[in-house]
Amino acid sequence: MTMRTAEERALLLPHGRVRPVVTAEEWLRRLLLLLVVGFLLVGVLLPLVPLVARSLSDPEGRFVGLANYVRYFSSPGLASSFVNSLTIATATTLLAVGLAFGYAWAIARTCMPGKGLFRAIALLPLFAPPLALAIGLVYLFGNKGLVTTGFFGFFERTLGLPLAYNIHLYGMNGIILGELLYCFPQAFLILTVAASLADARLYEASLALKASPLRTFWVVTMPGMRYGLISAIFVCFTLAFTDFGVPKVVGGNFNVLATDIYKQVIGQQNFVMGATISILLLAPTVIAFVIDRIAQRRQMAVLTSRSVPLRPRPHRLIDTIALIYCSLIAAAILIVIGAVVYASFVDVWPYRLGLTLRHYDFRHVGGGGWAAYTNSLWMSFYSALFGVVIIFLGAYIIEKSRTWPLLRHFAYFLSMISVALPGLVIGIAYIFFFNPKSWTIAGLALPNPFAFLYGTMAILVLANIVHFYTVSFMTATTALKQIDPEFESVSASMRVPFYRTFARITLPLSLPAVAEIAMYLFVNSMVTVSAVIFLYSPQLRLASVAIVNMDEAGDTAAAAAMSVLIIAACLIARLVYTVVVHQLNRRTQAWRLP
Amino acid sequence: MGDPSPYLQLQHIHKRFGKTVALEDVSLDVRAGEFLFLLGPSGCGKTTLLRIIAGLEEPTSGRIVQAGRDVTRLPASRRDFGIVFQSYALFPNLTVADNIAYGLKNQKLPKAQIAARVEELLRLVGLQGLDRRYPAQLSGGQQQRVALARALALSPGLLLLDEPLSALDARVRANLRGEITALQRRLGVTAIMVSHDQEEALTMADRIVVMDHGRIVQVGAPLEIYQHPATPFVADFVGQMNFLPGLVSSEGVGVFRTGPFALRVQGWQNHLPPGSEVMLAVRPEELRIEREHVGLSNVLVTEVRSVEFMGPHYRLLLHYRHHVDEQRPVSLVVHLPRHATVQHDLRVGATLPVHAPADALRVFRLPSGGSS
Questions:
Q1: Beta-ladder partners of B8
Q2: B366 DSSP 8-state letter
Q3: Of A127, A245, A587, B142, which sits 20 to 30 A from A252 (CA to CA)?
């Protein structure tokens, strides 16, 4: 062995990493990553800082520690809202997940007829604002509701039977019913995926070992669906705990956190208490989020590439029970949404039942009318357009590049936490962050570079993109993960720049996911009210907020009409999506695996 | 140190992922035009090494020189190589022709020239006429040929193959083995292939680099590795090997005892004190069954435990008692040609004398710290 040179000796000692040459391409990737992180910082993380700061200060901005929280819990009127919200969320979660489990199981594992139809009906409430569902309940179970009055006294008059029934809608009953309708499709969506991920071999093994159907259910079915169940519970709890629309309409005197925030901020201009309650609203959802993350991390691949998909076998009794069960739930959903549609055309409920279009002429009611509707359409369109670009590029740079690992992990973290932020919290945090012309940090006044956004369409779009970021991000990430990671390696070996491979390979392969994200963002921006209710300006009214205003003013029929318009827009968006995906699939059939 | 002008030099490559060491002080010279195999069990670092050569992964420290150019800090896009992956990594939305032309198009070559090159490459891998197909419409073997053509499209100086045959059926795999070697010889391209399949390495490679736990254990031609494995690990990983516990005997140089038997090993140089424990190794096909063993040396008298029919030969599992541990007899595998079975009593429990030729036996010193 010859003597080693000093240079070689230096190389022998592992000292730090070999630093690769930074190419122009790498700088471009870094720039992209920085833009995504910048967006998430401004949209997600930084607005939370003034929110937390406000909750720890008095109205004059002096630090008071936890005094606001102490004050909150010592005023019995406010503290009871916290318990009320927990009660509502728990009850809704149990009911929604329980009912959706049976519904999803029936669709995935039985041979009952009409599965496609049942699926479509179960998803219908996703296309309506929660406010609309509550309004539907009002028309059915309210003081002048169809059920409460016994079909306007029809049974009394014709049959002589007092078939009227008052469920005392306003209060806890109404909120739970409304939230149940709102959460059911979300739970169904998650559980239906879990229920269809079944490996037939496990069931055959169980059968061969002569296990009873009940034992098979506990040993094979449940473990496979466990993580889906945890996810569904997390989603339902968060939605019901933080929802504003349903309690606003059918809450009556039953206060929950979400309506308290609204009253504090809009009614009393008490921003400090608004901030304090927002943090309380955030706490359980953050805990639920953490639990869900831990559970998902432990999830193993339920379905391996060698799994054999389970094909349900006909069973007359089970199929009949499933059909009856699903029919009852589907009917309940259709009746509530049908009631909204019907009420929007009825002249004067319940006295003059003739049909009219006059409720669609919003000139004589508050809320902004048709202008609000077109504003909402544009806002949703922009949210879908800019959202899909930002979210897909963000997911791409996180998933497919090796740029700055720590910053990429940070970007991933920010992308995932936005789901834990309720819309109301985003709205109120945005007021604190974007409204002031300058921020005061440690006695220093810094000009706010984002203040120009306040009161514009841009801040509404930003709020929507952030509000619905995580689910869209996960859709994009899942699609990108299915693309062979070696495509980037092969392209580099052929000296093809990454953006060419993105444009020619990655993006075309991900188009179905891109369309899905755009549709999701559009629909949710249309129906949401919680994030935007604090952020819209009088010049820029929105359809979903108009429903709140009309309902407050007693113009329930107009609110129903606006609800119908929103539902129509969402269904059209869904239709466009279906056609686009169908066309995509037809065009790309040649290169899909047979 | 070896060659005057190696095409690729790896000098003291270290790679760590957090606390785990993936590669430890790997140095290797690759000659121009040779077909080199990185062989080892999964997790031995062979794929990491290939990715470092490609620039898809950075070494923690070390130096890589390719064609006289220090490429250590260059990203993959600035290096000169073509690569084929186990997953083929063909772009599913591009036709076969577009897949092959993917890198050519980026070089802004005239269309006619690209078309001619694609045609040439398709002929090279025997896929003429399939240029308009999509990858999903091809068989696995055809897909891997397209990947090979694509990797060769830019006439790279170095061809990297990351377990390209592992996902294929046995028969297709055997065909492609020969084709890839022939192609590599014809083009004279330097090639490095990662594999965990020793049979593949023995049939295809000019030289094999055996790796274990992030280190190079042995480098050599296939025959050399097979006949003279440097360590028990190599002996066991490349081909099959029987390991017999042994003691240095005082009966003469190169004589060992295993159980009640004495074995003479030809060419044994190392002088260990009598009584030292060693490991004797012999391949199953090198052992002979002897009917008349009286007077013969290097014979083990064994008992038949099981007989398995393997097609061309029978695999016999034999036992004999070793004095060190009477509870656990020593196992021995012997491959016996099918036609030879009639001459012997192969019932379970029968006594069978086995001859271990002196030139077939290898001796490994036990690592200090005792036997396993």
A1: B30, B66
A2: P
A3: A127
**Interatomic CA distance for residues A507 and A57, integer angstroms:** 48
Q: DSSP character for A220? A: I
Average pLDDT over residues A455-478: 96
Q: Name residues 78-117 of chain B within 8 A of A (Cβ).
A: 78-79, 81-83, 85, 87, 89, 91-94, 102-103, 106-107
Mark yes or no for CB contact A588/B93 under 8 Å.
yes
Closest-CA distance, A484 to chain B, in angstroms, reads 6
Question: What is residue A108's three-state secondary structure?
Answer: helix
Q: pLDDT digit of tens for each residue in chain B (372 aa)? A: 445 679 999 999 999 988 899 999 999 999 999 999 999 999 999 999 999 999 999 999 999 999 999 999 999 999 999 999 999 999 999 999 999 999 999 988 999 999 999 999 999 999 999 999 999 999 999 999 999 999 999 999 999 999 999 989 999 999 999 999 999 999 999 999 999 999 999 999 999 999 999 999 999 999 999 999 999 999 999 999 999 998 898 888 889 998 889 999 998 877 788 888 999 999 999 999 887 767 778 999 999 999 999 888 899 999 988 765 566 789 999 999 888 877 788 889 999 999 999 999 999 988 754 433
The Cα B79–Cα B63 span in angstroms is: 14
Residues 313-352 of B with CB under 8 A from A: none
Nearest residue to A527 (alpha-carbon basis) of A125, A70, A98, A158: A125
CB atoms within 10 A of CB A7: 10
What is the pLDDT at residue A299? 63
CB–CB contact A489 B76 (8 Å): yes
Asked if A21 and B74 come within 8 Å (Cβ–Cβ), the reply is yes
A484 vs B contacts (CB less than 8 Å): 85, 87, 89
Tokens 């390719």 locate to B66
Per the CB < 8 A criterion, the answer to whether A11 and B62 are in contact is yes
Q: How many CB pairs under 8 A join A and B?
A: 122
pLDDT in tens, A418-443: 988 999 999 999 999 999 998 887 77
B186 close to A (CB below 8 A): no
Between these two residues, A158 and A536, which has the higher pLDDT value? A536
A350 preceded by a cis bond (ω within 30 of 0): yes
Cβ separation A508–B93 shorter than 8 A: yes
Are residues A18 and B25, on separate chains, in Cβ contact within 8 Å?
Answer: no
Subunit contact B83:A490, Cβ cutoff 8 A: yes
Q: Chain A partners of B77 at a C-beta cutoff of 8 Å?
A: 23, 25, 492-493, 495, 497
Model confidence at A303: pLDDT above 60: no
Q: Which among A17, A591, A594 is the nearest to B60, CB-wise?
A: A17
Q: What is the pTM of this model?
A: 0.90
State whether residue B36 sits within 8 Å of chain A by CB: no
DSSP A537: B
Q: Are B87 and A20 a contacting pair at CB < 8 A?
A: no
Is A10's pLDDT higher than 50?
Answer: no
Contact residues on chain B for A505, CB-CB shorter than 8 A: 91, 93-94
Chain B: residue whose CA lies nearest to A593: B136
Q: How far is residue A514's CA from residue A395's CA, in Å, rounded to a whole number? A: 11
Dump the DSSP string for A6-65.
HHHHHHHS--S-------HHHHHHHHHHHHHHHHHIIIIITTHHHHHHHHTB-TTS-B-T
Which tokens in the block code for residue A62?
Answer: 């002096």
For residue B307, count CB atoms less than 10 angstroms from its CB and return exposed for 0-12, middle for 13-18, buried for 19 or more.
middle
Q: Which residue in B61, B143, B162 has the most chain A C-beta atoms within 10 A of its own C-beta, making it the best mutation to test that interface?
A: B61
Q: What percent of chain A has pLDDT over 90?
A: 67
3-state secondary structure of B69: strand
Q: Would you call B61 and A13 a contact, using CB atoms and an 8 Å cutoff?
A: yes
